[in-house]
Amino acid sequence: MPTDPTVSTPTSAAHAAPTADFTVLLDRLSARLPADALRTDSEALAAHARDAAPFSEAGIPAVVTLPHNAEQVAHILRTAYELGVPVVPQGARTGLAGAANAIDGCIVLSTARMDQILEIDPANRLVRCEPGVITKHLNDAVAAHGLTYPPDPASWERCTIGGNIATGAGGICCVKYGVTADYVLGLDLVLPDGRRMRTGRDTAKGVAGYDLTRLIVGSEGTLAVVVGATLALRPARPAALALLAQFPSLTAAGDAVAAITAAGHTPSALELIDRATSQAVADHGHGLLRPGSAATLIVESDTADPASDLHAMELLCKEAGADHVHAASTPEESRQVIEARRLVSPALGAFAATLGGKPTAFIEDVAVPRSELPKFIGTIEEIAHRNRLRIFTLGHAGDGNLHPTVVFDESDPEEFRRAENAYDEIMAAGLALGGTSTGEHGIGTLKRDWLTRELDPASLELQRGLKRLFDPRNLLNPGKVVEA
Amino acid sequence: MPTDPTVSTPTSAAHAAPTADFTVLLDRLSARLPADALRTDSEALAAHARDAAPFSEAGIPAVVTLPHNAEQVAHILRTAYELGVPVVPQGARTGLAGAANAIDGCIVLSTARMDQILEIDPANRLVRCEPGVITKHLNDAVAAHGLTYPPDPASWERCTIGGNIATGAGGICCVKYGVTADYVLGLDLVLPDGRRMRTGRDTAKGVAGYDLTRLIVGSEGTLAVVVGATLALRPARPAALALLAQFPSLTAAGDAVAAITAAGHTPSALELIDRATSQAVADHGHGLLRPGSAATLIVESDTADPASDLHAMELLCKEAGADHVHAASTPEESRQVIEARRLVSPALGAFAATLGGKPTAFIEDVAVPRSELPKFIGTIEEIAHRNRLRIFTLGHAGDGNLHPTVVFDESDPEEFRRAENAYDEIMAAGLALGGTSTGEHGIGTLKRDWLTRELDPASLELQRGLKRLFDPRNLLNPGKVVEA
Question: Which UniProt keywords apply (chains A, B) (predicted)?
């Protein structure tokens, strides 16, 4: 049982919630929740305080709820509404923008226990599930029916469908198969006042009324809580083959991406790794990567004839100036190629371990028009140089979506300041090239200020109006995306 | 010059607009519009009174405006806002739900003259254009760059991109390539008070803020006027091959659709024609169609190896019970197959001409889960029989989206009543099967009541709130989609 007699004071006016008597809150919640759905121990409160975004503001929740079904979610939201307590929905907390971060004194509402796949319908190529289903588990289940749910965020083995919907998650194969939003047909929701609502449809097509489904996707739990989803599926993807091409210059790699696009190819992965990252992966022992390269492309094809399409793209890479190309001819060789992409994270970890102090990685997420990639990466290298930082840039070249990652010693205040400065400069450079401040990670708390720079005043006003329309008391994940 | 001294009285309280002095309105509009952008002659007023939806309510506009650019659109909306005059945006008026129908005393705002393609960007596979560009013209222009804009509504040779966006238009190849909404990256808009706003982005991916772009797509000109669009393109489609398969029963045709889906095929067209329509097309002289068939499927494949995929689907049709299959082996033979689909409209026209009185066609648009198609078509046949009507059903079987078409003598009040009754019964049957009241034609004025039956109360309340948020004075296409 809790010892804290009151709900904590909010950290800032922006997140201000009327304080409520903690005992009343707990009594009201527990009236319709089983004991295992309600936690107030300090371990649970700390564990649910934040997602995976470093340096994002986060508070300590008053209580963590883990409802088992939609009725319990409705009860939690109704209670919060009546008592004026803010609610922060959470999935697996793998997000990278702070959108799932607790605010002081809030109710955390984790949908992790609502993890049932309710129906797989191969005839209509759709699946109905609860929000807490892990993305990989969903894919495993539909694979048994010869189907696939394509969106593949990096955290797909841990993240949940509800979190994917809340953030509008992307991934590597989006370049061919689209993002989470493209697969959400309908949603079961609980509104901030506890009412249930259904959006969308079970049909492949439909234009009945304004598209509330798409409004909820990517809204980061600020408009409603997803308690069920109807998702479109696709036939299982054919076996893929991959190649790895290294270039003496960024321009050459950019030319290869442009040539692949211009020739009408749609690879199932088109990933770019910059000089620093290529070097780190080579240093980490990936046998196929030659050190000293300015840029590496990883290209995957899962067409009906991947060998022939891969060969065509290999020639385009060579014509663009690639000085080292390795094209897989078997699935096993393809796995080795793709391994270079998977090794980025451990390679950066190994690099970080060589730094003194408290090494940290600051992962950016900016998308620019595909044609601006070489210029953008060049600018990032210049920003790294000027700020005396190591910035590793990799990302989804086919989508123009990059993740420049600043690895630095967070215990050094001066280096911290330079890292923050570089982060701001990268964002500004991306916007100046016609880009967006977030390709797939979201706004959360990290990028609220950038959102106000990206949107025009009328759009920002309407975004705030939307928040007020759905959540007039500003209790559902307040302070994320836009201020009400 | 106009002789009518005042703006007409609105037809109903729902559409009530404050009357304004007509001379003042005209003076204000003409202050910043060239003479050719302002018409008040009775010919223009009549021509712009309605779209292609029969039996939908429509009024007579006070004035028709044909602005040349966004500044003129903003001037028209600002003027209307200040004087309290309703505005009805129009594209090519090929819509089938009455969404572009004038209301008495309104300003019609036609975007037909804003027909410039502003930029084709092959490197980023996108095009920027004005709303009045005809869909076919856009496709012809991008084809020169080896690209295509897939959405292909039946009216694609006449309809405009702005109208496609306003209605969320579909088409035949949506089953593989998606609908209009899937191609809209960003929009330039004018809000009801005349302010400009930009939504979306130029990048392939992006999740910055709530998705206002998707909210506008399909909103039928009730939230804002589209003055520019950034659309995604795809590589040109490979050459396609088509087959035609006829079945002794609806169930057999449904089984074929299910088998094609289950085998993982994604045809670029999967069209179904019922018994009555097959007969009408055969009677109209299409040589490949045998009379007396319960259902005809037209299947098109544009994969890398269409002959092989078509052959596999041919076998599946035969296994499902097809008693007549004709698979094309050349593009010319494919055109003959597809011609059976194109002949539906003239064949129904020829049938209508055999009716006495004033023959009319009432085109429905209902989508059901794909697996419910045979049951739905059987129900439609039963409804036709019971109401003593000829109903021709055809549609996009791969999407579960059907267009049952009642052909009847509108001059016979009793037959009219039976046609209306059949229409209502078809809609109710579609919803009962888990369907939606509109797959691709929209709500307009025709289906407002059905929308309120399809949506739950909370959703309807939010839809109305959205309308009020964007258009607090209820002046932009009032009475369409939802009542404010």
Answer: FAD, Flavoprotein, Oxidoreductase
